[in-house]
Every structure is written in C-alpha cells, then in structure tokens.
Amino acid sequence: MGASRQSLRPQRRGRMLAPMSAERIAKCACGAVQVACKGEPARVSVCHCLDCQRRTGSAFSYNATFAAEQVRMAGKVNSFTQLGDEGRWGRHSFCPSCGRTAYYEIEVRPGMVTVPVGNFADPDFPPPTVSVYGERRHRWVGINTDQPIEEA
C-alpha cells in the first residue's frame, strides 16, 4: 500500500518565509521521501526493542517524536503494520525505492509521529533523554550524554 504526500515547499507567512531554523528536514537515503518537522521534538529517545533492532539493522534506534501537526511529509511511502512485543501496533512508513524508514507511528502515542534521527543527517541533533526496552540492550551498549537518560 502506497501513500503519496504533497511536495515540501517553504511555508509563507504573508510575504516572508518562515525561519528555516524552526524546521528540520529528514530524508530517506535516495531523497524521494522527505519529512519536515517544525519546532522541537516532544521526545528524543533510544530504543533497544527487538523490532527497532530489526528495523534499523543496528543494536538500537535513535528517534525523535513530534506531534502530528508539527510534521509534513512529501513523497510516496509504503507502510506495514505489525504487533510489537506487548501486542500493540506499530505502523512503519518507508521509501519504496531505497527501503529506508521515513517515519513511524505507534499505538501507545496517538497523534505523534516518530522520525529516525539519522534521517536528519544533523550531528548537532539533541541527544536522547529517554531509553526504552533496556532489558533488550546489548551488553556492550552504553549511551553517554551530558544529561541523564530516563529509563522508561
């Protein structure tokens, strides 16, 4: 199943462009799917669940969650929905050309959209403040930030 979103263009306020510093653009590997996120994320987290390990091909995922009204998508995506470890659904939307996850939504956070932080390609993106599924963390993984990380 595919979904097509409108093209991303700078939003105008009267005759002035909105300040670009207030909006971050995430892209898939080939650039065909873009996700524009306005303002700061409600949550920046790392997740050690097995689904995120499989989705990323890594030991954990690094994600930014925004209110749906802060997010605009452009480009065609394919989506699949699966049940997680606790029996709740997660809907993953990805680029049909390169296969990169563009964003996802989960049942436990209605009205929110989560974007993999790597898609922003911004080494100055805020660090995680929450770590989830720590019981699934690979023993060698340690996340060091200047601020404490809440175990949720």
Notes on the structure:
- The protein is mainly β and 152 residues long.
- It contains 1 helix and 13 strands, in the order E-E-E-E-E-E-H-E-E-E-E-E-E-E.
- The protein has one helix spanning 50-56; strands at residues 2-5, 12-13, 16-17, 23-27, 34-38, 43-47, 61-67, 71-83, 89-94, 101-106, 112-116, 130-132, 150-151.
- The radius of gyration is 16 Å and the shape is globular.
- The model is unreliable at 1-21 (pLDDT under 50).
List keywords for this structure.
152 residues; mainly beta; 5-stranded mixed sheet; 1 helix; 43% strand; globular
Task: Map the helices and strands.
Layout: E1 2-5, E2 12-13, E3 16-17, E4 23-27, E5 34-38, E6 43-47, H1 50-56, E7 61-67, E8 71-83, E9 89-94, E10 101-106, E11 112-116, E12 130-132, E13 150-151
Parallel strand pairs: 6-12, 12-13
Antiparallel strand pairs: 1-8, 2-3, 4-5, 5-8, 6-7, 7-11, 8-9, 9-10
In short:
The protein is built from 1 helix and 13 strands; from the N terminus they run E-E-E-E-E-E-H-E-E-E-E-E-E-E. The chain is mainly beta and 152 residues long.
Number of strands: 13
Q: Give the radius of gyration.
A: 16 Å
Structural class call reads mainly beta
* Tally of separate helices: 1
